[in-house]
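Note to self: keep these together.
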Amino acid sequence: MAILLLPEFCCPVKRMRSLSWLPRLSHQRICDMVAIARYLNVTLIVPELDKKSFWADPSEFQDIFDMYHFITSLRDEVRILKELSPRLKRRMELGLIHTMLPVSWSDISYYRNQILPLIQKYKVMHLNRTDTRLANNCQPSELQMLRCRVNFSALRFTTQIEELGKRVVKLLRQNGPFLVLHLRYEMDMLAFSGCTQGCNHEEVEELTRMRYAYPWWKEKIITSDLKRKDGLCPLTPEETTLALRALDIDPNIQIYIAAGEIYGGERRMASLALAYPKLVRKEILLERSDLRFFENHSSQMAALGYLVSLESDIFVPTYDGNMAKVVEGHRRYCFDFRAVPFD
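Structure:
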């Protein structure tokens, strides 16, 4: 995700500047940028989503989120515009916008002391890659409250995604309580994390080739055992089975798998399916025609999984990633529901 900032005289509202950004579906990046915009007193441009990443998702912001709600629900905090003016769009296309990479995990004072003077100097400024660019802790309380408001109120999914999510939840509820298992064991997760526990030699080679195929992924040489000892690997499906049984999870409960294609397929899922035979996925509950619109749109698929996770009786993430953190926070913020994160 990236942001674009403009000085106050470029904006029709006094004492305001302007900012735009390009994220993939990530509530945390979005709430950070809204908080920064509010703190710097700048105008925000509705995001353009990253289409060049591994997922190659062509979705626009308005394909995933209710753009009108996003803009209007935050109008008392920050001014948000749908798009740049034609003149500024042209400058962006010609590469005439000053671009820089913000320092990761920066305090909000970094943006006031380092970024704001640059906005004033260059008139328009583009901040590239805004993931983890604002520290989580020790920030002003009003900033933290705004982050929560964006995450759990302003970022509402489109009607189409919301309605399909409600259908999935209704179908699950017809058969009793259900647990959502956010099983982060897809090929991209393993390739980029370097976590290969349980994989055979051919799979390890395949995952390594994939990691090297993407030049933007800087960490190439990874020792899987060291990553695992540092607690940076997702649980394998086999380990997940052991953990669920240790927690005395009812073997007859429905377990909805909120994930993409599990690497290793049925071979890796065999122990989980044996211990918990009521495994279900969206492809089982819905007709293919219901999902046709979402094909090759990983962000929209993730949004569907997010909605079902919110409504679950038990939410179990197997990796402490962005989605797990936001779902856990959202459940506590709105419902006081608990999650079961594995440490």
